């Protein structure tokens, strides 16, 4: 596929793993080349067969050379032993540290290693284990993030401008591509809101008070991404993902996001027509394009009158994932209680 | 299930047919009790077995008594003969007219018959046939509609009020329940926008100029509904559905929707807290509750901080349906062309 891209092309690039409802045959065919990372009768993620084979070798090595035995491996499943979150997390860490040391996988070796723990949830929506972020896509577990679009509304929709950063040319993932104003992954123990505030400060130098006042969560998007070379590490790694989506409308001179670390080269207040052109030309990081398409739908920029694939796009932006998902901790029982 | 309902309860009431991704075993079990309405290798809708048996009897009667033979029926599929949209529509009409005359199914007899044609699409997104609206749920084909929320924003979100109609006590479907400000099904040959303007006038006496100026399409929601007794006709009929969703923000005294036909008893400008209470108590027509939950997500009324099932709700509001869907006629090739 080459530019110019349609909106559906851009959705397809991110939600690229076959969907069991829309393409059941392709989905089934793909599964035959995969193994399962499981907990009891539940599948937490899909693993490519070569990764599964490496894990078998590592587990044998751990048993014979290191004196521990943390994996249960069948013909087509792997699961990690442990009676608690802490024990399971400790057990998987030993294997991942070994892979890091041996440079087994590029994605979690050298500067690929993030030294950041990501949560994996069990079917009841509670934490099941924590694992090194860069290894999550080896096990194909669901990852979580936040994306915020900071924009200056115009007299008409066409006059809208969006604060758009360019990723630093030295970044290991998607160097030089355009990004959402604020975006980042949710580490274990952090809420979506904590992450938004942290990334807003780190990436765009936005004040916490401003985020508290103006950032609004307006949904979540979800997709099942097969990573390409630009993602860093091996190609084809599996990354089902949920992004909490935030909008922040600001006045023209109210906020000027500034690079605050080495993540971002610069920010420009980009006119909507230019954002569209850059989308069409494939200049946005793929999942940022995905989030912008959701923004365009909600802001009546993509409409049923102009977009033949409107219904498919609206549905694909919110893919149902076949893995256990995070349930927020602040559960309240009834609708009305939410109002408190 | 009885009140008070959570938001997820309300979603479950509307998106009630098992989802192949989230509940593959329940989905497969349900399919064993169904037959398929097909076109070639594609499934256009699911049919309950007793309906399939009636169709076999009717087709045999048509062949022996009326001299025509419009159905191809196998052990588990039915398809309608015809080389064109017109021919297929004419053929299915003969069977449906017979059922109406014989009062075979309550849903499309007597005052159930709508005398309105609904479109069924083929896998390329083009019109495949037109059929009587009230019979669509016998064949389980996808139906399309529009829902608009007309609201008066407040100083804070909590001060928002929503123009809420009560359905007339004499309506055959969901009598006396609360509804969205404007809602209606899309007939064959009508666009979503045409339908919004027509229903806005018929149901709420809104001027076309006002709708043109202020109504914004902000997405589509989709679900697979198994009809209950309140829907009119037989219970359990299958209704996969897509609703184009519109928002219209108005000033306090700018618009006063008025009943313009026998659909609506009255409109009230309902404070948000009261809308929530009525949702919790199950007083909204189920798919109107579904659309309001999407409104609540987009307007930051339901948030990840207050709703444990946030991710599931966002995904379930946009279910991927396993049937061919409408593609809008106004297709443009590239992202940038949409800007024209």
What report would you give on this structure?
Two copies of one chain form a homodimer. By secondary structure, chain A is α+β, with helices and mostly antiparallel strands. Chain A folds into two domains: 7-14 and 143-316, Nucleoside Triphosphate Pyrophosphohydrolase (Alpha-Beta Complex), CATH 3.90.79.10; 33-139, Transcription Regulator spoIIAA. Helix content of chain A is 31%, strand content 24%. Chain A has helices at residues 7-14, 24-31, 49-66, 85-102, 136-139, 192-204, 208-214, 272-280, 286-298, 310-316; strands at residues 34-39, 42-48, 71-73, 77-80, 117-121, 127-132, 143-152, 161-167, 182-185, 216-226, 238-249, 264-271. In chain A, the strands form three sheets. In chain A, strands 7, 8, 9, 10, 11 and 12 form a six-stranded mixed sheet that branches. A four-stranded mixed sheet of chain A has the order 2-1-4-3. Chain A has a two-stranded antiparallel ribbon with strand order 5-6. In chain A, a hairpin with a 5-residue loop joins strand 5 (117-121) and strand 6. In chain A, helix 1 (7-14) crosses helix 9. The longest helix of chain A is centred in the first third of the chain and has 18 residues, at 49-66. Mean pLDDT of chain A is 94; it is low at 330-340. The interface between A and B is large, with 67 and 67 residues.
State the gist of this model:
Chains A, B: Residues 145-292 form the Nudix hydrolase domain. The structure is a homodimer of 340-residue chains. The first copy, chain A, is an alpha+beta fold and 340 residues long.
């Amino acid at each position: 596929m080459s530019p110019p891209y349609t909106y559906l092309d851009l959705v397809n690039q991110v939600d690229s793993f076959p969907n069991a409802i829309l393409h059941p045959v392709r989905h089934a065919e793909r599964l035959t080349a995969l193994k399962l990372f499981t907990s009891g009768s539940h599948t937490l993620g899909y693993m490519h067969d070569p990764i599964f084979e490496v894990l078998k070798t590592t587990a044998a090595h751990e048993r014979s050379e290191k004196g521990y035995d943390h994996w249960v491996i069948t013909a087509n499943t792997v699961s990690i032993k442990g009676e608690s979150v802490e024990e399971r997390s400790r057990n998987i860490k030993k294997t991942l540290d070994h892979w890091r040391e041996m440079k087994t996988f590029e994605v979690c070796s050298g500067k690929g290693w993030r030294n950041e723990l990501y949560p994996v949830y069990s079917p009841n929506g509670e934490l099941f284990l924590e694992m090194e972020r860069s290894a999550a896509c080896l096990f194909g577990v669901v990852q979580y993030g936040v994306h915020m679009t900071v924009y200056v509304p115009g007299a008409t929709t066409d006059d809208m401008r969006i604060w758009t950063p360019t990723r630093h040319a030295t970044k290991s993932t998607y160097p030089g591509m355009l990004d959402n104003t604020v975006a980042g992954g949710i580490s274990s123990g952090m809420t979506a809101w904590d992450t938004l505030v942290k990334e807003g400060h780190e990436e765009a130098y936005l004040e916490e008070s401003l985020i508290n006042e103006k950032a609004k969560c307006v949904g979540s998007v979800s997709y099942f991404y097969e990573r390409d070379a630009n993602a860093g590490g091996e190609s084809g790694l599996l990354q089902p993902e949920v992004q909490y989506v935030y909008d922040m409308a600001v006045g023209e001179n109210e906020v000027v996001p500034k690079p605050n670390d080495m993540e971002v080269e610069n920010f420009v207040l980009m006119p909507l027509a230019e954002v569209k052109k850059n989308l069409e030309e494939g200049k946005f990081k793929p999942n940022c394009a995905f989030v912008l398409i959701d923004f365009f739908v909600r802001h009546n920029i993509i409409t049923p009158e102009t977009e033949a694939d409107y219904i498919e796009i609206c549905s694909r932006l919110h893919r149902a994932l076949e893995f256990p998902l995070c349930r927020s901790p602040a559960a309240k029982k009834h609708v009305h209680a939410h109002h408190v």
